Hints:
Blueprint: H1 2-37, H2 50-58, H3 62-87, H4 95-130, H5 138-141, H6 148-156, H7 166-177, E1 189-200, E2 203-215, E3 220-224, H8 231-238, E4 245-250, E5 253-254, H9 259-262, E6 266-269, H10 281-292, H11 299-312, H12 328-340, E7 346-350, H13 358-372, E8 377-381, E9 394-400, E10 406-413, H14 414-421, H15 426-433, H16 444-455
Parallel strand pairs: 3-8, 3-9, 6-7, 7-8
Antiparallel strand pairs: 1-2, 1-4, 4-5, 9-10
Helix pairs in contact: 1-6, 2-3, 3-4, 10-11, 10-12
Amino acid sequence: MDQAFSLLCSVLFLTSGAMNVALAILxxxxxxxxxxxxxxxxxxxxxxxxxxxxxxxxAGREPEGRAYCMxxxxxxxxxxxxxLIGQRNVTAENAESAASFIMILTVxxxxxxxxRFVYGIRxxxxxxxxxxxxxxxxxxxxxxxxxxxxxxxxxxxxxxxPEWQVEDLRAAMARLASSGSVTVMDEGLTxxxxxxxxTEYFRKKTLLRDIHMSIPQGHMVLLLGGSGAGKTTFxxxxxxxxxxxxxxxxxxxxxxxxYKKMQYExxxxxxSEMMRGKDTVLSTLLDAARLRLPKDVxxxxxxxxxxxxxxxxxxxxxxxxxxxxxxxxxxxxLSISMxxxxxPSLFILDEPDSGLxxxxxxxxxxxxxxxxxxxxxxxxxxxxxxxxxxLFDDVIVLAKDSARTGRLAFYGSVEEARRFFGxxxxxxxxxxxxxxxxxxxxxxxEYVMRFAEARNG
Length: 457
């Protein structure tokens, strides 16, 4: 009886192993065809880990595919180590240590498996979107016993075709990256940014690419883009704080090669307010004047400039008040005044209306509009643009392409933006270029290419 039971268990084990191998082969065959449909090399489906990365590329989720690939390699490494330990001669002396080591590997495997499951959802979710299918397909994709079903259906079904091919899209984006530079203006801001990149996990990551524009003096410009589109990276590249592979010219001066001279020409107001609460408004601005005005400016000239700025922003009545006693709107005006002390030609503001109600925000933007009318260039980032959009001249729209690189999806007047995107509001425009998993329409690549083609004639 015991021998029969042991034989039955052996047969079931062999049958289960053979079935797993058969299902894995079916999955690879289907994945081979999916990669070919997306313009990639099908034989890469044979390589564990690499096929996960390539699948991420097919899904337009290359960063997720990279993480999905790494989890596969880690799991393979853990399984190999466990197998090697099992093949060693385990004696009474080392049995306990071997068991402890295998237990540690098992504990490590659990979070890795969870991470792999999460990234699997993202990769297969993106692939489902690329094929224009319903979300319920995800349940078949995530189980090892059923993932071969969608792989074969999508791979060999003629009616299942991806919306775009990976290599075609990359080639199109590469062509756009090599064109579109604008002529440098003698007056105003000219940006010819080829690339802004950084190193992340020993790998080059392109943050921005192919952004070219000229902004005339006296223009107030709205900078739009979803989370991660590169708005802050862009303004840091423009003001010279983070240099890019770019040429940034302001009224004939080069922001990179003449930075010490040009730093007085640019004012940048960050979202966070960096002021000491126990200082008065007057002392705060005098300190700002000592920092931001050239060294050869006298104390009398600094005080005259401070008084002028306080008058412009309506701070004279509260000049002796402590910063901590100011209202939210007064603190915002003071924060802006600190940067305006140097009388910059270019003024960049990140969320200047955060925490303000509609009335206070509009009054603040109306003041910025008056400053722009004196010949200054003002670039503003705000998440509530529609309540003050009538005060702006132009709109810059940045969007993440399929490679998660910030690209220029539009630059032009407010009315031109509405016609170009076919949207009535700025919030709808941002939604149109946001990725689908972020609640957007996922049209970034389409608008980036369309705008580049229109710009290049």
